């Protein structure tokens, strides 16, 4: 009898880790810009956008349509050179209840920083998060959303090239309400991978619709006309000049 109880206890103890370590279709890091150019109203619109995305039935259907029917997601916030932190830890999402837990965690997360825009540093931080992602996945993606170009720390292409060397895809959502050239900056210096892309939100009010479409595209891994190969290593002169001048 004692042995039977011990086996039952062991099975219960191992049930959750087994679920967490099961294979998933995608490891996804959501990297949210919280630099000083984003005020608190705009930050709240960012949060609401991600909440709506994980509540959206089309996002859940995209997750469940994969071979394993689940993905693993973590959320980080980033701003200046030394301002990166996980806001929502890795979570496996496959069922509606798991999606609900994710959007509840996002809805409750506080703003962690205000500061400069260190995009390259944010990417380097995001890369390290994959080392403790649950289970195995055939694809690893960093989803960057932001409203400004790099003005501190490592240039964006430094992080991009580091991601490319590890086979990590980077996609961008450029919020172009203030910097109209941000979409092109993301295309030239941020995104990498065989299915990498940039989407545009014209303002923070349209952020929610854009992030729903972006998540569906990332989850399904669809190859479309906006694909972009990994750029070669090294910093382009134009970016180096922009970084040094702060423009």
Structure, described:
The protein has a single domain (27-245), classed as Rossmann fold (3-Layer(aba) Sandwich), CATH 3.40.50. It is built from 9 helices and 6 strands, in the order H-E-H-H-E-E-H-H-E-H-E-H-E-H-H. It has helices at residues 2-20, 40-55, 57-64, 96-108, 119-129, 156-165, 182-189, 207-220, 237-245, and strands spanning 27-33, 71-78, 84-93, 140-146, 169-175, 198-201. A 6-stranded mixed sheet has the order 3-2-1-4-5-6, with helices on both faces. Helix 6 links the parallel strand 4 (140-146) and strand 5 (169-175). The model is unreliable at 4-18 and 223-247 (pLDDT under 50).
Task: Write a brief structural summary.
Helix content is 44%, strand content 17%.
SSE run: HEHHEEHHEHEHEHH
- Overall geometry: globular
Name of the CATH superfamily: von Willebrand factor, type A domain
| Total count of domains | 1
Strand order of the largest sheet: 3-2-1-4-5-6
Oligomer description: single chain
Proportion of β residues?
15-25%
User: What helical percentage do the residues reach?
Assistant: 40-55%
Structural class: alpha/beta
Q: What does the main sheet amount to?
A: 6 strands, mixed
Number of strands: 6
Which CATH C-level class is it?
A: Alpha Beta
Which stretches are poorly predicted, pLDDT < 50 over at least 5 residues? Answer: 4-18, 223-247
- Write down the Rg: 19 Å
Q: Can you tell me the CATH topology?
A: Rossmann fold
Mean pLDDT: 85
